Amino acid sequence: MHQRIPRSLRFRFFAALGGLLLCAIAALASISAWLIFPALQAEERATVKRELDRVERSFELDQQQLHSQVRDWAHWDDTYRFIQGEYPRYADVNFSQEMFEDMRYQLMAFFTASGDVHFLAGINPVTGDYQTCRAPIDDCSWMTPWVTNMQTAIAENRTDQSSIYPDRPPAIMASSPILRTDKSGTAVGWLFKTRSLDDDWLAFMEVYTGLPITLNLSKETISISDVFSFSGNTVFAERYFPTSSSLSSVSLGVGIELNRTSYLTSLTTFRYVLLWTAGLMIMVIALVLLLLEKIVLKPLRLLTQFTQQVGIDGADAHGLTKRNDEIGLLARTFQEQFACQQQLNAELLKLSTHDALTGLPNRRLYDQRLETAFSDAVSTPSELAVMMLDIDHFKLYNDHYGHQQGDECLQQVAGAFNSIATKFNFLIARTGGEEFSAILPGASPDSAKGIGEQLTRVIDQLQLPHATSPVKPYVTVSVGIATLKDSKSPSPSAIMSTADQALYLAKAAGRHQVVLFTPPKASNTLSAQNTPL
Ligand SMILES: Nc1nc2c(ncn2[C@@H]2O[C@H](COP(=O)(O)OP(=O)(O)OP(=O)(O)O)[C@@H](O)[C@H]2O)c(=O)[nH]1
């Protein structure tokens, strides 16, 4: 079944503002999801990346330092002489455990031009003792993997550089050809230095960068340089560097762990802002609706009630006409229009029910009243008399005095009739040119006749001159009266027809008299009881 959708102003405002609110909240949610949250996440990633860049620069700096230190040592005449066997006390003079620890060297390896080991010195990663050897055997066997890597680098001509080696522990290895201090001549050998990326190195880097750092060796080749993993309040990020592994490709990941406090605080703040914004929007729209209801919708409802009840007592119970706003103006204008309309209606009603010349009720009103009086008399039942009155020889009056004076005569006759009608409380109307009719509810034949006589008398008393009247030298009237009982089949038209017959008899009998219709006797002849005046 078709259900009627409410279309009131209130419904429309609620629907429109509710829709607006939903759109605004959806827009807010979309902007948050597609713009603001991704921007916050990108900002967090950029911050983490900056920290990784800082760690990478520190790492590279450490490698460059090691390389420049190797070069310093390799391009030194003492070293040049040492590799050629001309400076046997070189190691005793220059090397010590303290020097290795201070410089954070794990191993220093000297190779001849043919790539053979000349001298090895380093700190045993297991015992922590300083050791020197001529070959990586016995106590110095821990040096073997690195010496092998170094000899491979010499064989592949990968010297004079700094690289990362993924041995255990992973290490930075820097090398340089051994030359004179003035760098003249050809290389007489190679010098290698390694720095282990062990716990001490991590501790050093932590102090240097201010970040906790971890190392992770991956056997796979990592294609992306940075890997992020977010968990709760922390983010773990790793940057992978290629290593010089002789066996397979291995990557070294340098990782940092950062606190996400800044991001999470921004997120929480933004969520609060979102919630407050949504809450404020709801509050503003609720306030707008409330004000709308109070300022516009309720007064409009009252105005509607007022327009429906205007003219009735208490219609302006809410004092709308006393308001100083548009509602008050509308209410006052409507009230004035209504009063004007009522006046016009009354005038129209009077025009349609009264005679313009005499001001007496006209035939239309007379017929309506006769219908009502007739119904009342029949239903009660009660008596009812009607009367027809006609000015005698009015044509002669018009002919003699003119139509204008004829009108004035009609007005005076009507006024006189009306004074009697008011006195006895009955209706008298102008139902034709110079013809009048009266309804006398409850009047007996005798009282009706008495009133008829009073009406003719009051016209006589006017003494309106009628020089050409064969009846009297002044204006006179004839009256015909009929009662409800006079008709065999009573009806309003039948009773009026009977009164007309009585008037005819009055005229026929010489005018200026009242004739009460008398029902025909058995002889069926029409007769009347008249009263010549
Ligand atoms: N001045 C004026 N005359 C009117 C008006 N209405 C009707 N008459 C005149 O009233 C006269 C009526 O004449 P009749 O019907 O012949 O009757 P009468 O001369 O009164 O004669 P009886 O009725 O037989 O006594 C006519 O001359 C109409 O012109 C009116 O409004 N003003």
From TrEMBL:
InterPro entries: CHASE4, Diguanylate_Cyclase, GGDEF_dom, Nucleotide_cyclase, Rev_trsase/Diguanyl_cyclase
Alphabetical list of Gene3D superfamilies matching this protein: 3.30.70.270, 6.10.340.10
PROSITE patterns, per the entry: GGDEF (PS50887)
Coiled coil (residue ranges): none
Membrane-spanning segments: 272-292
EC annotation from Swiss-Prot or TrEMBL: 2.7.7.65
Domain GGDEF: 382-519
Protein name: diguanylate cyclase
Keywords (A to Z) from UniProt: Membrane, Transmembrane, Transmembrane helix
PANTHER family linked: DIGUANYLATE CYCLASE DGCM-RELATED, REGULATORY COMPONENTS OF SENSORY TRANSDUCTION SYSTEM
One Pfam family named in its UniProt record: GGDEF
Catalytic activity reported: 2 GTP = 3',3'-c-di-GMP + 2 diphosphate
